[in-house]
Amino acid sequence: MQNKGGVQGFIKMKNSQMKIMESIFVLIIFFFLLMFGLIFYAKFSQMDSGSDLQENVEKQAFEAAQRLQYLPELQRTKDGNYVQSDCVDLYKLESFEKLKNASSYRKYFPDTLVVLELVYPENKQDRWTLYNYTSNTSSSGERHYLPISLYNATAEEYYFGYIMVEARY
Amino acid sequence: MNSRGQSEIVGLLIIVVLISFIMLFVINSFMSDSDEGTQKVNNEKLASSFLISMLDTNTNCTKNTDVQDLIVACGEWHRQGTAGIQCDDGRNSCEFLNETVLKVVLDNTLEKWNYPYELIITEPNNPSNKIIHKTGNNVSRAQSGQSQPQPLSASSGQMYVWLCLGKCGELT
User: Confidence band (pLDDT; 50, 70, 90) for A30?
Assistant: First the structure.
């Protein structure tokens, strides 16, 4: 009788051990899945914040290009009051180049490089650095291009070029 | 038995909450693709500025000949066989446009910037006939893009210049 009780106790103990083991396994799998999820989430949000930063810098480059396009210091005007869209006056451009990095433009073009390149015709001066200011040591950035006409009032000719705006990280 | 039932319900709840979080996270990451809209606007603006600026450009073909004149003359030559503009170097308007202007302009801009593009110029009064068709930067594998038709008036009818940044299936 005592022996029977011992066997029953042994079986009962084995059953409890099995249940504890089962619970432990369930917990291990649960925490493993949780950890896997957290790592996945952390990696993904890290990637997301990287692309957010890139998106912001791209937006900054686009906005700077838009500002430049409507800058009276560069725009070509016909008869003194009609503004020609997507057109830069060559003589205004040459004067603007001399103002390079003027502090009054810093709030409009923070950490920005602005270059105007002439594409056609090929035999003319082909590059003007209009603005180059950076507050930190960063060198890489996002670029935005804006095709423009360049008007030479002396020859009364239009040339084709583009403004490259590089906003830095 | 009652306690076991309760713990199973709690377990089920935890699983439901976890799955909800995962679903929320996945939906959020798919929904945050607003980038495409900005890109579309940028491409539209770029294509329109590109065409406007290019058409106004003076060329070395003859004095006072701009790109628009060359395109119209080339269209007339295709439509009616008229000589059109004869350039100072002996080439006709189509040859000068193709071999000099478009080559220099496209190679130094869209090609250099790695923008997939498709430039199409149609015959006057016959939009289905392309007199010039240039593509670059693997346009066939690019995302669908924006097409900007620019109408030009030729003596034999309206002709169009299309610049599409990306793949524009409806043009091909």
Answer: confident
Beta strands B146-154 and B157-165: pairing type?
A: antiparallel
In B, minimum Cα distance to A51 occurs at: B35
Q: How far is A64 from chain B (nearest CA, A)?
A: 13
CB atoms within 10 A of CB B121: 24
**pLDDT value, residue B171:** 47
A70-79, A155-164, B43-52, B130-139: which is most confident:
A155-164
Helices (H) and strands (E) in chain A, counts: 2, 6
CB pairs under 8 A between A and B: 70
- Test A86 with B49 for CB contact under 8 angstroms: yes
Listed by number, the residues of chain A in 52-91 with a beta carbon closer than 8 Å to a beta carbon of chain B are 55, 58-59, 62, 85-87
B55 in contact with A, Cβ within 8 Å: no
CB contact under 8 A, A162 and B109: yes
- Chain A nearest CA to B53, separation (Å): 5
CB atoms closer than 10 angstroms to residue A131: 21
Contacts of the segment A142-145: beta carbons below 8 A, 24+ positions apart: A142/A54, A142/A57, A142/A58, A142/A60, A142/A61, A142/A166, A142/A167, A143/A61, A143/B113, A144/A58, A144/A61, A144/A62, A144/A64, A144/A65, A144/B42, A145/A65, A145/B46, A145/B109, A145/B113
Tell me if ipTM is over 0.85.
no
Can you give the pTM of this predicted structure?
Answer: 0.73
pLDDT given for residue B68 in this prediction: 93
Token pair 């091909």: residue: B172
Q: What region does A62 belong to: left with phi over 0, alpha with psi -120 to 50, or beta?
A: alpha
User: Chain A: nearest CA to B172, how far in angstroms?
Assistant: 25
Q: Do A162 and B29 touch (CB under 8 A)?
A: no
